[in-house]
User: Fold this.
Amino acid sequence: MKIRYLIAAAAVGLAAPAMAQDINLASQASISQQLGNNNYGSIEQAGSIHALASIDQWGSDNKAGNTLFQRDCPCYPVMYPGIYQVNSTNVQARVSMHGISDQANIIQWDASNSRALIAQDHEGQIGHGNIAHIFQDGLNADAEIWQTGEFNRAFLIQGEGRGAVNLGRITQSGAHNTAGMEQFGSGHQGFITQR
Assistant:
């Protein structure tokens, strides 16, 4: 029975049109870095449909991508994405970090029906200095940043190139936190909660 399935799968692969090679269908990629410090993770998915990318990190000073702030304007950093999904449809990106002084960046560029989540908590430590950025360009984008602790920064941009009917949420619990959101286009909803 197994041999028949393998032959059928091979035959389908040979019969597929050449343009199907340019599109990734139902791709999944994940990185899990546990109980360590100064780790780095990055995932790139291009031309994907129904793709999922996730990064999980436990520890301090970990990075899912990198954020370099310019002296003249800390609001617009130079971004090296931890998860980069471009020219895609129905994609999801999730970064979960447990520690202090962590950074996470998600960029979904020219992506419609995209979902992005960054969750940063402190796993029993005093949360301090986490940074989260999400940039989405497309239609029907949904983004959420969730942070606990102190001195955290969250920034969200939706629809910078084109965008409509996007939803953005930032929730921070703790003290001395900073949050910012920019939405370009029409039909958006944005919510910032600090408590």
